[in-house]
Amino acid sequence: MNHTWPSRLLGVAVPLVLALVVSVVLLQLAGAPPFEALRLLGDGSVGSLAKISDTLSAWVPLTLAAAGLVVTFAAGLWNIGVEGQIVAGAIAATWVAREMPGSAPVVITLMLVAGVVGGLLWALLAGVLKTRGGVNEIFGGLGLDFVASGLAIYLIIGPWKREGIASTSGTDLFRPEAWMPTVGDAQIPVIPVVLTVLAVVLVYVLMRGTRFGLRLKAVGKNRRSAHLLGIPTERYTLAAFMVCGALAGLAGAILVSSVFHKLVPAVSGGYGFLGILVVLLAGYRAAWIAPIALFFAAVAVGSTQLSLRLDLDSSLGGVLQGVLVLLVILLGGWRAVRSRRSTEHAAQEEP
Amino acid sequence: MSLELQDIRKSFGPVRANDGVSLSIEDGTLHGLLGENGAGKSTLMKILSGFISADAGRVVLDGTPLALSSPRDGIRAGIGMLHQDPLVFLPFSVLDNFLLGSGGGLRVDRDAGRGALLETGERFGFSFDPDSPARSLSVGERQQLEIARLLWLGARMLILDEPTTGISATQRTLLFEILRSLAAEGMIVAFVSHKLEEVEELCDRVTVMRKGRVVGEAEMPCPAERLVEMMFGRVFSESEPTPPPFGEPVLDVDRVILRERVVTTAELDVSVRQGEIVGLAGLEGSGQRMLLRAAAGLLRPISGRIDVHGRDLTGRPYRGFLDAGVHYLPAGRLEEGLVSGLTVAEHVLLARGSDRFFIDTDEAHEQARAAIADYAIVGTPGSPAESLSGGNQQRLLLAMTPPDVRLLLMEHPTRGLDIESAEFVWTRLLERREAGAAIVFASADLDELLRYSDRIVVFFSGRILRVLDARTTSGEDLGYLIGGKERV
Q1: Residue of A nearest to B17 (CA)
Q2: Partners of residue A216 in chain B, C-beta under 8 Å
Q3: Contact (CB<8Å) A225/B43
Q4: What is residue A124's predicted lDDT score, i.e. its pLDDT?
């Protein structure tokens, strides 16, 4: 397959245009003025500094999850458990916020570290289930997602319940020292954005310029050849899980510290699953994640504007994202099928 | 009734698996299709059963051309294929397996199926319990179940692809009896094999294939020499001059028993010394690959002992064998060896076991260019492995072999390679031998075995039949032994 810049750009641009066309048709069917709606979508996501700040707040966890997923995808793993890893990071960070004394820099640093460790361990669990227990990472990950969110709900209505009442709306707000500081009136989350940029760069360098990344790719593309080349495939599989879990856990810690300021039941907000779509759209490449995630975040944040102003359901943004990803995958799949047709059966025959 | 294949052609990339095959099979005869591995027999039978489509040519049954584009079409036309690994769903019961693929819409008539199964069983002397799980059946019984199923589905023609692999002698006798009685009833029976002995025992007529073409037909009985000559079709060449004296033992395989899937070997004893080249001959699946994999540390013996350079490595992990200087190059170059999607430079990087974390791209490309020049690889450092031709993939694999390797294990080192590449590979291998490495290779190419080996170990159905001195062995003798027959 051709991976040159223009072809990749075309592979994103064509579905993007098609997805916009589909959205316009959908909006028309819903009885809304389509171009007004798209304008509102833009306004609602990047129309003001405050909106930009909201969009960035969604971009951070989405990009972190996607960056981690690039690593697990490279190792040939479908880390569906990324949602649970975000939740595990959020729980660990919440524990620090509740239990650790200290000034803001200390508490927040500890929260981030705890999030990283929590996500990492939760991912390691999925990895060990796979390598030692023979549990496919998709099923193991999905199971652990439910366990993690169940654990969060238990903590919220049980040991960490709000003073007097147990409510699924979340724990008490953290004390101010555990709130991630922001910049300006628009409350721009500068520290999370910087951390996210660093994470993307880290993953990019890891996959492009290190032996670790190269061996990981070899394991992902051909486990048998990698094993014969003397690469410890099990260790690399676990390492991929841990890197992804660490980044997802960091996302969880940022969500509780910077967005919610408390632990809420659906803390992961679907960013993990959405991250999978971002990575698919990016063609598994770290460099493309940040812009694509930004677009997704903008659509998600902007679509809330639609419900306020046009009386449309904000899930329309989700529909747009879903259609976009389906079209990209469809186009890629169609191209692969076409190229396979021309060399049919060549692989299944011994020479 | 008769079946005719007319000018069947099928290519896989540059390989012509079937190159204009024409063949006709009459009913009432047991028709054998004989040829060495890679002769194109399996491809032809897969086309006949609708499993793959031919590029050109016609299949004509009783004067009617058949359109075969899926196994379903094959079954509808009455062509039943018995695959080498019987297609049995292990978690299902015997009866459910029997009923699979039967027509009649959504409703399954289990009682009728049960009756038919028992009736067919009785007729041929099979003893099935319809309700027992299929996984309790032996390979031979699975085959019997599959035959019963194909007959019940209305097969008018039965194709058997190497049906005797992994079944017992009693089951083989029973199978042959059934095939004879089916043929006597007017069924078309095609028996695909590379075992001379079985074809001689069973078939009335034999078609021999070599390199994708039909090279001859014979009524049985036919002198074995003629069949051997048709199968291998060669004037056997002289072996190379005597090599230097050998050094200390590098590999010592001592009374090792190996098991992989349905095949269990007898006790194997092989010893290889420094500077020696040992060829492993035999039909595919006779145990050569298992021995190579065991010597590489990839297959753990059931019993016995494997020493490398005098150190007992039995049961040690693969890593331990690598560290002892063992290197294994399997036949499937893109499946086990290279990684599709990674470039030549990335392969060279992976092979050089440096532990530095960061990759120096310039240095990597420099190393790749050196390897490309050294091994005359047609490609650039940025070429993906799968874009290289078979010969260049093998050159890349050789370039990736560590320079200090002491025991090189190879499977079909020159299979699918053109003459120039094959010569190049062996020049490099002989250089490795000069440098003190021992080489063990499995091959189906008699010329290659005779020309480069010092000794040839002949395998037949999981045991070592003979160990030959390559200098005093003729191609004819070797051909006989590979077919499991001693020359009289």
Answers
A1: A351
A2: none
A3: no
A4: 97
> What does the pLDDT look like over A160-192, one tens digit per residue?
988 877 788 889 899 999 999 988 888 889 999
Tell me the one-letter amino acid at A138. Answer: I
Report CB contact under 8 Å: B341, A345.
Answer: no
Tens digit of pLDDT for each residue in B111-150?
A: 888 888 888 888 887 877 888 888 778 777 888 888 888 8
The interface predicted TM-score of the complex, written ipTM, equals 0.82
pLDDT tens track for B76-111: 888 888 877 677 787 788 888 888 777 656 667 788
Q: Compute the distance between CA of residue B207 and CA of residue B192 in angstroms, rounded to an integer.
A: 10
Q: Which of B339, B343, B344, B346 to mutate to test the interface with A (most CBs of A within 10 A)?
A: B339
Interatomic CA distance for residues B64 and B58, integer angstroms: 10
- Closest-approach residue (CA) in chain B for A230: B319
Of A215, A232, A349, the CB nearest to B350: A215
Q: What's the whole-model pTM score?
A: 0.75
